[in-house]
Design goal:
EC number: 3.5.4.16
Largest sheet: 6 strands, mixed
InterPro entries: GTP-CH-I_C/QueF, GTP-CH-I_N, GTP_CycHdrlase_I, GTP_CycHdrlase_I_CS, GTP_CycHdrlase_I_dom
Strand order of the largest sheet: 1-10-9-6-5-8
Organism: Waterburya agarophytonicola KI4
Subunit structure: Homopolymer.
Number of strands: 10
Order of helices and strands: EHEEHHHEEEEHEHEHEHH
Structural class: alpha+beta
Catalytic activity: GTP + H2O = 7,8-dihydroneopterin 3'-triphosphate + formate + H(+)
Low-confidence stretches: 5-37, 39-44
Distance between the termini: 32 Å
Shape: elongated
Bound molecules: guanosine-5'-triphosphate, zinc ion
Number of helices: 9
Mean pLDDT: 86
Helix content: 25-40%
Length: 243
């Protein structure tokens, strides 16, 4: 369920899971992943995910040069001479999540601890780009899971957020991809992800509502099926730490 709150005013308490809780978890997830590729399909085929090549970088620089001309600037003036290169490098970094894989990122940091209580990493800052305007949206992610004996290195949860955020995204898909990735690597009893973000395409332009923020959630397994577990998670992400 997605909650959109304008100017921080009306954050709802009722983050419910979606309606497919009766299906076997694994096959449901596989179906969901298959029907929700990282990038839009093109002519029915999934786009190839590959590292930015030198040729691609050159094309990006040419495009920036053209944009500078198109806004009436002189791309040859001193202050703008290096701008196409800078923008191309910035874009390469901001979309670097396309070149990462879950396997490399986790790097085997999965430990059999026999721990079965909730693990939550809160307030993971993230920056992403919306796929509609290629403008930033940024905020905080909260990622929790209830282990099934196995736990993952804590930093890996933040790295998963980072990998999917460094792509062209919509917030709902980003939230779901993070939850599915944790499900895939750990097969835990449940996963919950909440993301709170502010979209520059709604602040700097368009509807121009600075201060509005969007909350999205993805709940899997026990977080979806058990209201108490979900409430415990929601209370924990609201709790103010004393340090
Ligand atoms: N659901 C969702 N929508 C998003 C996200 N990021 C941007 N958008 C929206 O994508 C929509 C694109 O709408 P369009 O009408 O095609 O584009 P537009 O004319 O630029 O729309 P406005 O932003 O309303 O000016 C806008 O409503 C954006 O607010 C996101 O992460 N999730
Ligand atoms: Zn946008």
């Amino acid at each position: 369920m997605t909650i959109v709150s304008s100017n921080g005013s009306s954050r709802s308490e009722s983050l419910n899971g979606n309606s497919n809780s009766s299906n076997p978890l694994k096959s449901t997830l596989l179906d969901q992943v298959a029907s929700r590729p990282d990038r839009n399909t093109h002519n029915g085929k999934e786009a190839q995910i590959k590292a930015t090549s030198e040729a691609a970088k050159e094309k990006m620089m040419e495009a920036v040069y053209t944009m500078l001309e198109s806004v009436g600037e002189d791309p040859e003036r001193e202050g703008l001479l290096k701008t196409p290169k800078r923008v191309a490098e910035a874009m390469e970094y901001l979309t670097s999540g396309y070149n990462q894989s879950l396997e490399d990122l986790v790097n085997g940091a999965i430990f059999d601890e026999g721990h079965n209580e909730m693990v939550l990493v809160r307030d993971i800052n993230f920056f992403s780009l919306c796929e509609h305007h290629m403008l930033p949206f940024m905020g905080r992610a909260h990622v929790a899971y209830i282990p099934n004996q196995k736990v993952v290195g804590l930093s890996k949860l933040a790295r998963i957020v980072e990998m999917y955020a460094r792509r062209l995204q919509v917030q709902e898909r980003l939230t779901r991809q993070i939850a599915e990735a944790v499900q895939e690597i750990l097969e835990p009893q449940g996963v919950a992800v909440v993301m709170e973000a502010s979209h520059m395409c709604m602040s700097m332009r368009g509807v121009q509502k600075p201060g509005s923020w969007t909350v999205t959630s993805a709940m899997i397994g026990s977080f979806q099926d058990d209201q108490k577990t979900r409430e415990e998670f929601l209370n924990l992400i609201r709790h103010q730490p004393n340090f």
